[in-house]
Amino acid sequence: MEVEIAAKPTKSFKAGKVIRDEHLTWSGQGTAKPGEARVTLQIPEGKLQDAGKVRWRSRVADSSGGWTRWQDLTIQQQQSAQTPTKEEPVDGPLPSRGPETKQKATRTGAPTASLAESPLAGTQAVQSFNYDRIDKQGDCQLSREESIATWRWIKNSFNVCFTGRIGETLVENDLPTGIAWSARVSIVVHTYVGHSAGTADPTAARGEAGIHSRQMKVWIKIDQFYPHGFPEAAGRPVSIRLSNSGGCFADKQKITEDIGDWIRGADRLITLTSPKDWFPAPDYKGFCGIKPSVYYPETDDINKRLGWLSPDRVEFRCDSSPRILNHTGGCVVWSSRPVWHLDGNRAQTPDPVTGKMTGVDQTAAHIWKALYEPDDTVPLSPVRKRIPGRYSENDPGCASENNRCLTRAEGDRSDPDTVPGQNDIARKKVCKLAPIPSGLQKPSCDEYPFASTYEGAASAGYNISVAIVECRDNNTAGGLLNGWYDRERILEKDPFWVDATKKGETPPEDVPPPDIAQVDTSGFGASCR
Q1: Of the candidates 489, 484, 518, the residue with the CA atom closest to the CA atom of residue 499
Q2: Closest of 335, 213, 322 to residue 274, by C-alpha
Q3: Contact yes or no for 129/110 (Cβ under 8 A)
Q4: Would you give the distance in Å from CA 233 to the centre of its chain?
Q5: Please, where are the H alpha helices in 83-233?
Q6: Distance between CA 146 and CA 231 in Å, rounded?
Q7: Cis geometry, peptide bond prior to residue 495 (ω within 30 degrees of 0)
Q8: Nearest-angstrom CA–CA distance, 204 and 480
Q9: Closest to 255 (Cα-Cα) out of 264, 242, 244
Q10: 82 CB neighbour count, 10 Å cutoff
Q11: Close Cβ partners of 42 (under 8 Å, ≥ 6 residues apart)
């Protein structure tokens, strides 16, 4: 076994270009003893620092496969029960109202991390649904560079955070004195999904007691307070508002406290609710947006009393679709559309009939080629191909007509009156053009864009790709896609992105590993098209 540990990559700007710096901290090898399945490696003292954030990956030294994906790791030294740890404040740049706000939207697949009861306190609990939570104040706060006044991070469909520096400047005789107090604010939003239909309380939120699946929790924390000589700074009132839109209601419209009270005690909490009966059947879809702000009621200049933590509203979509049986009701981020990612490095499993080890590497390679080398795919086109679905980091919400998401088409592909059925009919004609590779035990024609989208073969023209792959490889990938539709609540005409990683290559860092425990692939491969 070979293991590498590296510092988390940093980005800097030089000569108008983004420079990416990656530093290997340590690497080592170990061999398991006969009869043992575990390899233990000792990292030399001093290589890792307490509270440091690093990444690690591994591979079997004699394996033909590549490295595993990079995994994030936070180093924590063991603490005595009698010696609690204490965060040492680090003063950041002085805040102002109306600073530049930067945004980050992470490409998301199906996550693996567990839920925290209080995301700003860092407590964790084991959950049956992996939301990949923003579960510590560092997750949100440390993602912001100190030079950026305010920061918004859409981590995935179930987590959003806002963080930044706030404060007021002392003004005397209509002139700023340069004396100002400052503090740090963090706001973390969690959305939820329900339980399987038929359970005792299917609409109860998975992983959070006392609320239902169409509710969202918003935790607010203010810390790192610095008076900086501002008279009676701890007594200055500060109000945090979500400014939620009409598709939901909040149990508190705002929370106003003196800054000295804000920095003491537990995180403040606001709960948002999107009532099912507000919206029409059958899916009961409702949209709820928030645009958090900081309000300083005692600032003399009324034009400087309000400061936004986000340049625009973050939208959420709640639904109670009867077609999502495993997660009854739920809310997801709508402003940034999720990415279905197929990793060709996914662990192989034995075919129940032939015993041959199969994965999804053939289907992943085909999708990758369709997205990144479309002109080399079947069918050949007399004009340049433009196959849709490839993720655009400049347009995560798929708002521009220049960036083409895929859009879900529900229905049975065996029914010719449905969009999937029409796609399947058109696909069969194109599949006759694809060469059949040697060595396949049960060939199957894979098409991209998927039959379950409006961009499929029936309307694609030349903007489609087909390839002959192993049957079980193809069907396993299809099963993973259908499971992902369910957990990400992708309904009729909902847009989404697609990406793929070829076997032996490393997936993008911001794509979590597939949550294979929630998708049963045991029956895939029983029939092929």
Answers
A1: 484
A2: 213
A3: no
A4: 38
A5: 137-141
A6: 26
A7: no
A8: 25
A9: 242
A10: 5
A11: 28
CB 132 within 8 A of CB 155: yes
Parallel/antiparallel/unpaired status of strands 495-501 and 10-14: unpaired
Q: Where are the domains of the chain?
A: 2-74, 101-333, 339-518
What is d(CA 502, CA 365) in angstroms, rounded to the nearest whole number?
5
Pairing of strands 495-501, 339-343: parallel
Backbone angles phi, psi at 332, to 5 degrees: -135, 160
CA distance 341 to 460: 21
Residues sharing a CB contact under 8 Å with residue 315, sequence separation 6 or more, in sequence order: 245, 287, 288, 289, 333, 334, 335
Max intra-chain CA distance, the chain: 86
Q: Which amino acid is at 124?
A: Q
Give the residue among 312, 345, 277, 302 at the shortest CA–CA distance from 101.
312
Please list the residues that pair with 53 across neighbouring strands. Answer: 74
Show Cβ contacts of residue 78 under 8 Å, excluding neighbours closer than 6 positions. Answer: none
Residue 470 is encoded by which pair of tokens?
Answer: 């192993």
Amino acid residing at 474:
N
Do 218 and 189 meet the contact criterion of CB atoms below 8 Å apart? yes
Q: Are the C-beta atoms of 391 and 339 separated by less than 8 Å?
A: yes
Alpha-carbon separation of residue 122 from 140, 178, 186, 424, 445 (angstroms): 11, 36, 13, 48, 47
Rg (Cα) of the chain, in Å, rounded? Answer: 26
User: Rounded to 5 degrees, what are φ and ψ at 366?
Assistant: -65, -45
218, β-bridge pairs: 189, 270
CA angle 284, 287, 292 (to 5 degrees): 150
Dump the DSSP string for 11-55.
Answer: EEEETTEEEEE--EEEEEE--PPTT------PPPTTSS-TT-EEE
Question: How would you write the pLDDT of the chain (529 residues) with one tens digit per residue?
Answer: 778 887 765 433 333 333 344 567 788 777 766 656 567 778 887 777 665 677 777 776 544 445 666 666 777 654 433 333 333 333 333 333 333 445 655 554 433 222 233 455 443 333 478 898 986 666 787 777 777 888 899 999 999 999 999 999 999 988 989 999 999 999 999 999 999 988 999 999 999 999 999 999 999 999 999 999 999 999 999 999 999 999 999 999 999 999 999 999 889 999 999 999 999 999 999 999 999 999 999 998 888 999 999 989 999 999 999 999 999 999 999 999 999 999 999 888 777 677 777 799 999 999 999 999 999 999 999 999 999 999 888 888 998 777 689 999 999 999 999 999 999 999 999 999 999 999 999 999 999 999 999 999 999 999 999 999 999 999 999 999 999 999 999 999 999 999 999 999 988 876 654 443 333 433 333 455 6
User: Residue 43 is which amino acid?
Assistant: I
How far apart CA 322 and CA 328 sit, in angstroms, is 8
Q: Which two tokens stand for residue 203?
A: 């609409």
